[in-house]
Amino acid sequence: MGFGGISIWQLLIILAIVLLIFGTKRLKSLGGDLGGAIKGFRKAMDQDEEKKAAQTEEHKRLESEHEGDAEFAEQKDTERHG
């Protein structure tokens, strides 16, 4: 039993028919194109993850700066009223 009820012999017959229809050169170029597309997709995903990580770091930095500003303003307010 193979994939979804298809035996290995049926897969080999399908592969032989595809080779006869398209030829090895076209299948080779198709495989290269598919590999290039997958490589480009992975690269884009990595760049997106790096961008998200940089945005998260920037957001954390800005939050810490604003927390310091709030504490400073709170201290000044306490000094004025206290």
Compact overview of the structure:
By secondary structure, the chain is mostly helical.
Structure overview:
With 82 residues, this protein is an all-alpha fold. It has 2 helices and no strands. The longest helix has 58 residues, at 24-81.
Provide tags for this entry.
single chain; mainly alpha
Q: Structural class, from helix and strand content?
A: mainly alpha
DSSP, total strands: 0
Number of separate helices = 2
What is the alpha-carbon Rg in Å?
30 Å
The secondary-structure element order is HH
Overall mean pLDDT stands at: 81
Helix proportion of residues, in percent?
A: over 70%
Unreliable sequence segments? none
Largest sheet: none
Query: What's the shape?
Result: rod-shaped
Distance between the termini: 83 Å
Strand-residue fraction?
A: under 5%
Produce the secondary structure layout.
Blueprint lengths: L7 H15 L1 H58 L1
